[in-house]
Amino acid sequence: ETGVTQTPRHLVMGMTNKKSLKCEQHLGHNAMYWYKQSAKKPLELMFVYSLEERVENNSVPSRFSPECPNSSHLFLHLHTLQPEDSALYLCASSQDLASGADTQYFGPGTRLTVL
Amino acid sequence: GQNIDQPTEMTATEGAIVQINCTYQTSGFNGLFWYQQHAGEAPTFLSYNVLDGLEEKGRFSSFLSRSKGYSYLLLKELQMKDSASYLCAVRDSNYQLIWGAGTKLIIKP
After folding, report:
1. Distance from the CA of B49 to the CA of which of A5, A86, B25, B33 falls in 20 to 30 A?
2. Of A100, A103, A106, the CB nearest to B42
3. Count of pairs with CB atoms under 8 A, one residue in A, one in B
4. pLDDT tens-digit series, residues B67-83
């Protein structure tokens, strides 16, 4: 247990569906992240929030929409996804963004399959 | 561009020692991290290096040479539970983490 939880753990959706991924951290951290992990590829940073403000958006398609209602919760809203979006989606949190030693703690991920 | 290189896969024997290398080319350097990720699970933090030299933590050690853009993770007295992927990541001048693709370590009895 890392103190970061994600639901659901597995999700299968069609290209016309709308679904949301949820992340919650119980560590009192100020920063939260969404990553995409595809097989044999580096982790791809999608979004970064610090104190509920979005500070990073790495050219992610608009079919992915993040939401951070408070410092403990992070959502990723999905709509009209493509089969190539199938991957493991990881949420992480850390104490602060601007510290070199700032360590990220990851949730177990949501395995997403788009049909 | 920014790049982290590490071997795709390595195999080692239970009880032995294995060294996983990581080379990096990034815009600036604010530390290097190693994470362990078991199949289907979250990556978990192993070590952090920001100064040159060796950091030892039980059976695991991590080494950094900033002038060479090089790090390694050393695992001693290998156990079957060490079978996992090992991820190298470097924090660049913008404090963003740049990740390698990971090294899958297979431990054989």
Report:
1. A5
2. A106
3. 50
4. 999 999 999 999 999 99
